[in-house]
Design a protein that fits this description.
This protein is of the alpha/beta class. 31% of the residues lie in helices and 24% in strands. It folds into 2 domains: 203 residues, Enolpyruvate transferase domain (UDP-n-acetylglucosamine1-carboxyvinyl-transferase, Chain, Alpha-beta prism); 207 residues, Enolpyruvate transferase domain (UDP-n-acetylglucosamine1-carboxyvinyl-transferase, Chain, Alpha-beta prism), CATH 3.65.10. The protein binds shikimate-3-phosphate and phosphoenolpyruvate (PEP). Its EC number is 2.5.1.19.
Length: 433
């Protein structure tokens, strides 16, 4: 059944502050690295959302101890993770790229049989290169073939209790997560792992740097050379970590200031971070924003009177595209968002989804190769589709802020990474405006 959410309409300046939940990408890496160590690790201020709940359950099903103590708010939650020899299990990956890509290498190292499946949308997400790489490293995997004849979910992995590791080549042009998956499990291969990227340039490189950073933080030696990463064998110990807020999920709230000429603050914005979402501030500055960070960790963005069009290569920060596209729909001229072919394998084909939904509200939009061109025009309300994609839901909310009559289908799809999005959005829009 389709639920309908009338998007709040607030074309006058939105002013307020929003605390955003923890980073999905850091959570996934902390979970995996903690699970590969036998000493307990502690994850503080974690993300309470569908992706992180699925990862916690996937690890438990493989025999990892995951104790999630709930505080009054998620900022007070504490998770204790203790790994050990893993056994096989049944895993639901939902629509989480991090679960469907990061868990198979663990299953290949476990003793026993693991079956991994997910939502209908997960079955069509690219999966082949990680399956082929694990096979090349000696893992036995039965995978379903997708329409292109590539390995896809559901799959069964027959874990042998360990793998030798060594060198492997991979075409990771469809997702950086294939390489991250192999590197994260790397310390537990007998000889570690060396991953060589073949094929076109890997997207979302900052996410690879995040993977390397988390491994190093856990005491693992990682060597990086152009297109080659080596993880030495060892026992990772993550220790205690506090998860940063998710900066890609902060982006829609900053976009609210962009499209209304308002002012939005995000507390706990990290001074230094590996999150690609941090780049949203420079991108919005190019579109006319004024951004200020105060020493107490609050980042404030003031939206411009007129939004400048943007011509930018988003290959490294693909997950920001829907948010940027929504803002570009209100720019003073055409924008071109370049080099984002990887979006075809995200929660939905986001290039097609952005083109379709912008067109639906009257904005010019067309895909040219791996770029999307956005030609603003007077927009009108419509019932907007979200394709089970959390970022298409927040995209529609941004459009609805400035254009009346937008109704968003299945806003609850934001539960993937931000379950309280509707209340947070209403709270910001209604705050003393
Ligand atoms: O490793 C990660 O946590 C992620 C990597 C990126 O995936 P792609 O490389 O498939 O774009 C990003 O878009 C996704 O949201 C999260
Ligand atoms: C691409 C994304 O998610 P996933 O981790 O499922 O790939 C995303 O959150 O934008």
């Amino acid at each position: 059944m389709t639920s309908l959410w009338p998007a709040p309409h607030h074309p006058s300046p939105v002013v307020g502050a929003v605390s955003v939940p923890a980073s999905k990408s850091l959570m996934a890496r902390y979970f995996i690295v903690a699970a590969l160590g036998s000493k307990p690790s502690i994850i503080r201020a974690p993300l309470r959302a569908r992706d992180s709940a699925l990862m916690a359950q996937a690890l438990r099903n493989l025999g990892v101890e995951v104790i999630w103590e709930r505080g009054e708010t998620e900022a007070e939650d504490v998770i204790t993770v203790r790994g050990g020899q893993m056994h096989g299990g049944t895993i639901d990956a939902g629509l989480a790229g991090t679960v469907m890509r990061f868990v198979p290498p663990l299953a290949a190292l476990a003793s026993g049989e693991t079956r991994i499946d997910g939502d209908a949308g997960a079955r069509v997400r690219p999966m082949g290169p990680v399956v082929e790489a694990l096979r090349a490293l000696g893992a036995r995997i039965d995978a379903t073939e997708n329409a292109k004849g590539e390995p896809a979910l559901p799959l069964t992995i027959y874990g042998k209790g360990g793998l030798t590791g060594g060198e492997v080549e991979i075409d990771s042009s469809a997702s950086s997560q294939f390489i991250s998956a192999l590197l994260l499990a790397g310390p537990r291969f007998e000889r570690g792992i060396t991953v060589r990227s073949t094929g076109a340039k890997v997207p979302s490189v900052p996410h690879l740097n995040m993977t390397v950073d988390v491994l190093r933080r856990a005491g693992i030696e990682v060597r990086c050379a152009p297109n080659t990463w080596t993880v030495l064998p060892g026992e990772p110990h993550l220790g205690g970590v506090t998860v940063e807020p998710d900066l890609s999920n902060a982006a829609p709230f900053l976009a609210a200031a962009m499209v209304t000429g308002g002012e939005v603050s995000i507390p706990r914005w990290p001074e230094q971070t590996t999150q690609p979402g941090a780049q949203i501030t420079e991108i919005f500055e190019r579109m006319g924003a004024a951004v200020e960070s105060t020493h107490d960790g609050v980042l404030t963005l003031r939206g411009p009177q007129t939004i400048s069009p943007l011509d930018a290569d988003l290959h490294d920060v693909g997950e920001l595209t829907p948010t940027i596209a929504a803002v570009a729909a209100y720019a003073a001229g055409p924008s071109r968002l370049r080099n984002i072919g990887q979006l075809r394998g995200h929660e939905t084909d986001r290039l097609a989804a952005i083109e379709a939904e912008l067109t639906r509200v009257g904005c010019g939009a067309r895909i040219e190769g791996d770029d999307i061109v956005i030609e603003p025009a007077p927009l009108h309300g419509a019932q907007m589709r979200t394709y089970a994609d959390h970022r298409m839901a927040t995209f529609a909310a941004i459009i609805g802020l400035r254009t009346s009559g937008v109704v968003v289908e299945n806003i609850e799809t934001t539960a993937k990474t931000m379950p309280h999005f509707p209340a947070m959005w209403n709270g910001l829009v209604e705050a003393e405006n």
